[in-house]
């Protein structure tokens, strides 16, 4: 795509870890960035979902962040990144330098609103904040992550709550909850991080989880459990089912910080409340807990609204994806979807998906002749 043309061979939707990893391999396999492939990202800046994560999150306090392929050529690695600065800033800075170094020419802001099958071409429409534009392409690689699709489960009375519902995606700073009674829902590291941060700020915190928390004896994620959680995601993606939660498979690593929180009694999860009332939550034994805020660390769903015109969704609730390729539409690929939804998975997806996209382009060219 050039400034006076809206034709390209590959459109990559999303410029997070998955989209950038795909871009790296597309370029390595010979495609010219900004011309033969175009990256459209909603932005506003570099960093994918990381740019929106809460202020207190540091590299190392979340799980491991794997380096993008070829990041070492810039003399950078997340292994040695600054752990005193917010992860959101460090990641955004690294990604921005990476995009510039490899000259990916990511288009921002470019919020894709729909992808339409127009016979031998796919039409990708995006808004740049001022108006809509459409790019015509052979192949689409969707790398839109999940951050834009926060999930809050329904509980009786949810909409009657007079306090604030806050999802992980909206949580910025513990100071916003000073003096409040806060109920935190969720069994993963985000919920735990919030509880530890809120301990000295909120009037009271209460932790609830939909399933018992499995604290792993090792400080690190259990690799076997991680592999089996990824396998569950893969199985669901291949069957076109809604994706299961990753945390349900991996457990929570018992780091020193988490163990100290358990010892202080901050990290004791109660089973889920049975309903929500205007001023708090009702436990199944009838007791009542006052709450000003309910923080929902209940995960995300893949962000796929813009693909609705392609009718990829199965009646089982998901889309059928195997090795990053849509089974229904072989010109649509997914990077960072399901089993690839981690920084390491996104990296691997980059290589696999870029190779398949190039193979599809060659096949389409042969068919044209
Ligand atoms: P994203 O980083 O979300 O990037 C997607 C990009 O697509 C964004 O830039 C977005 O703006 C863009 N986009 C979305 N929709 C559109 C659209 N319609 N049009 C145009 N652009 C669009 N993984 C780890 O490995 N280590 C961790 O420590 C870790 N911590 C996590 C903490 C939290 C709270 C969460 C929710 C996830 C965490 N993950 C972690 C998993 C995370 O999903 C991956 O790390 C990885 O960053 C995801 O990369 P991605 O490129 O798939 O998605």
Which key terms come to mind for this protein?
single chain; 369 residues; alpha/beta; 5-stranded parallel beta sheet; 4-stranded parallel beta sheet; 7 helices; 19 strands; binds flavin-adenine dinucleotide
Description:
There is one protein chain. The chain has helices spanning 17-28, 87-101, 189-198, 223-239, 247-250, 256-264, 343-368, and strands at 10-13, 37-40, 111-118, 121-127, 132-137, 139-142, 164-167, 181-185, 204-209, 215-216, 252-253, 269-271, 275-277, 280-282, 288-290, 293-296, 321-322, 325-326, 332-334. The protein has a five-stranded parallel sheet, with helices on one face. Helix 1 crosses helix 7. The longest helix is centred in the last third of the chain and has 26 residues, at 343-368. The chain is globular and about 75 Å long. With 369 residues, it is of the alpha/beta class. The mean pLDDT is 93.
The DSSP helix count reads 7
Cα Rg:
22 Å
What is the typical, i.e. mean, pLDDT?
93
Helix content: 25-40%
The arrangement of helices and strands along the chain is EHEHEEEEEEHEEHHEHEEEEEEEEH
Tally of extended strands?
A: 19
What topology, given as strand order, has the largest sheet?
7-16-8-9-12
Strand fraction: 15-25%
- Terminal-residue CA separation: 22 Å
Which stretches of 5+ consecutive residues score pLDDT under 50?
Answer: none
Structural class designation: alpha/beta
Q: What oligomeric state do the depicted chains represent? A: single chain
